[in-house]
Design brief:
The protein is α+β, with helices and mostly antiparallel strands. The protein is built from eight helices and seven strands. Strands 1-2-3-4-5-7-6 form a seven-stranded mixed sheet. Strand 2 (about 105-110) and strand 3 (about 115-120) form a beta hairpin.
Amino acid sequence: MTTRSWAEMLTAIEERLVAGTGDGVATWSARVRETGLDAEPEVRAWLAERGITGYGQMLLVMERFGYPDFLTATADELVDGQYADRPQLRPVYEAVAAAALALPDVHLQARKGYVSLVGPRRTFAVLQASTRTRLDLGLRLPGREPGGRLLAARSIGNGDCSVRVPLTTLDDVDDEVVDLLAEALAANR
């Protein structure tokens, strides 16, 4: 199973920075250092004045002030950290991840506290070990209301999930969960 780390995302951000400005991270980092600005808000304002916002700005700010540990960790290290104190949930994670990867054009993106399930357009689901005994599958399903196994999604991943399915054992990863993954992917194409 291949899960992407932040390194791949940082590469994609740099590609967008070059496409938008003509210059890469090294050039922009040198320009930021040359300004002599020492405060993050000042650096952000300076970059924004030059049309660099969003992820490009985030990357250049981290270049200037340092990267958090989770951005330099491998995908395996991030996932291992999420399940270090809840090893009984790791097989549940692996089963859902395998079901997601069996769908077309899906990859996994490891974050510090969760794993994003990403389709061709955007994140459609999130796997988060929310407690020591429960893994939540957050789903971005616009218009779907909580009901049955679908519960309201609160504090799942990046906050874009509308509903979640609580999972505690491998038996919880059934055909309904696989169908919900496919539905969420289709809804976010």
